Amino acid sequence: MSSAEAHTLIEDLFSLAGKTAVIIGGGGVLAGEIAMGLAGAGANVVIADLNEENAKRQAQAIRDLGRKALACQADVTRKADIQRVLEATLANFGGVEILLNAAGINSGTPFFEIEEAEWQRILDVDLRSVFLACQVFGKAMVDSGKGGSIINISSASSDPPLSKVFTYSVAKGGVNQITKFLAREFAPSRVRVNAIQPGFFPAEQNRKLLTEERVASIMNHTPMRRYGAPSELIGAAVYLASDKASSFVTGSIVRVDGGFGAMTI
Ligand SMILES: NC(=O)c1ccc[n+]([C@@H]2O[C@H](COP(=O)([O-])OP(=O)(O)OC[C@H]3O[C@@H](n4cnc5c(N)ncnc54)[C@H](O)[C@@H]3O)[C@@H](O)[C@H]2O)c1
Using a 6 Å cutoff on CB, does residue 195 contact ligand 1? Predict the structure, then answer.
């Protein structure tokens, strides 16, 4: 193979040109950066987020890259809102090939003090939204007959759980199960379902949890001895989104964590 052929092959493997990606929680720190990466690889992007201002700002940043983008304010704990995002996506782009589920909230409330309302809210945002979005967008992908790629954002807390974040860990364990179950369910329709399991990346939802003591413990347990930068999630996301680069990959949980998940004493 010539170097020109190799170059074309690499471009072809990772190009998302002509694809449309819906990024749920795309107004946030990690998903916003991933959205930029998918757009950089050629995708049109729909940013769906509870926070309308952040969704609009992120969509504009993508347009500034020269790609098409749409902002949708949505509470993804509500199926009707997710349905509305699908309809807006189809109306604007004619189809959807990539879904990233990244809405998330967290809390460090000690176990005996967790009120049912908090438990329910975290499960709704971190787990139920993934179920609902996989139903709504998964159906659209299956019915299209063209396949697709669903990427769920899991967590280092999914298995085994981190200390302090009880409900979040339960939710993220559920996200792993959704990923594997649907990988099997959707495979005949060529809809692949995978997850990215990030280590520690300072962001909005975990800002209050990162106390001095916890940061020391995180660093001691991370062989690379640093936080991740949001841009370090782009490679895994583009790989999993591309139906050429990861054509035989489904049901996988890809760690991007500086070695956290491989660490023991
Ligand atoms: N930051 C980390 O270290 C880390 C590690 C592992 C996993 N994660 C996961 O990555 C994802 C992104 O989190 P982040 O760290 O970028 O935090 P973030 O707070 O910056 O982003 C989360 C986004 O979710 C949105 N959101 C919350 N509730 C919503 C709702 N009901 N409907 C629609 N959108 C809603 C928020 O508005 C926000 O834009 C989350 O699923 C989080 O659990 C983060």
Answer: no
25 near 76, Cβ under 8 Å? yes
**Residue 188 scores a pLDDT above 80:** yes
Q: Which of 166, 168, 186, 260 is catalytic?
A: 168
The residue-averaged pLDDT of 33-50 equals 98
- 168 tagged catalytic: yes
* Whole-number Cα distances in Å, 125 to 57, 105, 187, 199, 224: 22, 7, 26, 20, 30
Does residue 58 have its Cβ closer than 6 Å to ligand 1? no
CA of 54 relative to ligand 1 center, distance in Å: 12
Q: Do 173 and 161 contact (CB within 8 A), yes or no?
A: yes
What CATH architecture is 3-262? 3-Layer(aba) Sandwich (3.40)
- % of the chain residues with pLDDT over 70: 100
Residue 28 gets which letter from DSSP?
S
CB 254 within 8 A of CB 32: no
Residue nearest ligand 1's atom 42 by CA: 104
> Does 167 score more than 90 pLDDT?
yes
pLDDT at res. 64: 96
Taken as a whole, the chain contains a residue count of: 265
User: Is the CB of residue 85 below 6 angstroms from any atom belonging to ligand 1?
Assistant: no
Beta partners for residue 69, in sequence order: 45
Q: How far is the CA of 75 from the centre of ligand 1 (A)?
A: 13
Query: Are 63 and 38 within 8 A, CB to CB?
Result: no
